[in-house]
């Protein structure tokens, strides 16, 4: 069955449609959604089967995944990561924004994702669509990028083309308008010697 194609506006996402998406996530749906950078694919972090599906669609083993978590804000960050005061201060100063912070994972992460990874990526995107989804859901969703096979364009930006490509692999595709084609800036904050390990959209002054 083809995925649902749901139009939402980043400035004021329709609460009823957000509720509909959240209900689907709780039932194990895999969704594609806009962020403040590129389109992402994800699911409820508490649904192991859905996490496995995302890994399968990406062509990776779940235990080897590099999924990040999309959070509404930093209020529950300690549930998933160990954050120093310095790292928290830095994150608070630039989030919501186009950054992924790599942090030491808390004991919850291996259980959630069936992985031995000691780190987790944390995203708080400056886009109300994914933030409202996780706010209503009550916990983060995993996020991984939607890549394009095109040699020139690394990431798919047109929601209709994304729908054409993924309509038979995922359950919901959220059209939040054209996405960007520059990914987030990845910051290693596993200790207080912060470093940028991938320069993306976000500019960070360390």
From TrEMBL:
InterPro entries cross-referenced by the UniProt entry: DHBP_synth_RibB-like_a/b_dom, Sua5-like_dom, SUA5_domain
Pfam families in UniProt: Sua5_yciO_yrdC
User: Is this entry keyworded Transferase?
Assistant: yes
Which Gene Ontology molecular-function terms are recorded? L-threonylcarbamoyladenylate synthase
The Enzyme Commission number assigned here is 2.7.7.87
Please provide the record's keywords in A-Z order: Nucleotidyltransferase, Transferase
Residue ranges occupied by any YrdC-like domain in the UniProt entry: 15-202
**What's the protein called, per UniProt?**
L-threonylcarbamoyladenylate synthase
- The organism is Spirosoma flavum
Upper lineage is: Bacteria, Pseudomonadati, Bacteroidota, Cytophagia, Cytophagales
